[in-house]
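Possible regression after last week's pipeline update?

I re-ran a chain I had predicted before the update to compare outputs. Posting the input and the new output here so someone can diff against the archived version. Not blocking, just want to make sure nothing changed silently.
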Amino acid sequence: MDYSQIRTLLTVTKQSFVFEYCPDLMGFQWAASTTTTSFALSFTPFICFFPKLKGCRGRPNMIFHSRNLSSKLEDHRHGESEALSASLHSFRSDVSNSLNQLSPNSNPASEFLSLTWIQQCLELLSTLNKAFAKLAVEIEYPINKWESPSVEKYLNYSLKLLEFLNSISSSLSHLGQARVSISHALSLVESSPQSAVERLGAIQFKNLQSNDLKVEEKEESEETNCYTGKQLVFHEALEETKRIGYWVCGVALFGLSGDNEPYLAMKKAASGFPVSSLVALDLSFSEAVAEERAVPKQLREVKEAAACLVAAVGDGESGGAAKQLERKLEVMEELLDRIGKEADGIFSEVLAGRNELLDVLRQLKQ
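New output (post-update):
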């Protein structure tokens, strides 16, 4: 007899019917008829018939050990929910701690909004990627298990992040060209002071070519509003990663290019900051922007040193001012190189993660 196909109709009269839990009896379902006192029962994979017991009126006595089955399943679901919540809390804690390291309270006043600070902002992107990957491992949600909305959301975010990183590299390249021009002007101070002054006056740190960056956010569909379990945790973590990532890129572009349009656009896209420490950090940055202190410290110092050199050339005493500008320029060059390496490293990380996902999708389609 194929017990997996057994279906029994048992008519219950006045006798009591007791269910008790038995680990061997899993998968049966029962439903009460709305018109009779019958219960339709179907079970897989195991059913036991025992001798008649008193009060069963000649029917086979069937002891279905199912007591506490629903409660045990509920405990399992509750335990899984707690584990998912703990993983999401750990992710948020890691991100919040990293954001706190960028606050003015954690940095000397002279370092806030400096090139060093911008480098730390970009390092946060790498921290976000690692924290997000750690979360996916903890909740046992590998790439090949991602639902289509999760895949689409990650691909869109990673592509936009690569575009932002390219814009950051473009801004760095513009600053590098300005540095070369200043170095050339310094070489002309002794032989052709007037030419040096003209070249120094023509140098611009601002690069307004990044103001065409846009962040288009799709409205959440009904499907994405019904996330549950692992997909819900994944969605919330990715949403926070995306919003913070956008903010970081906007701030970095503002500092490196002098253009506030990318920052304002990405701040809007990152509206509804999910992390309180990011709200406080953005407030500090916004205050600096309002006070026109958003130009990185090292860029300001180079501009001031260049202005001093121009004045010194006019007075015929350019030696000390030229050396001062040269020192400031070396510091700027070193920090710009560090930022460039950081941006390149993050670009490689994001691209590798994106390619890994695309490779898995291709394998699943085969």
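Follow-up from reviewer: compared with the archived run. The two ends are 40 Å apart (CA to CA). Marking as no regression found.
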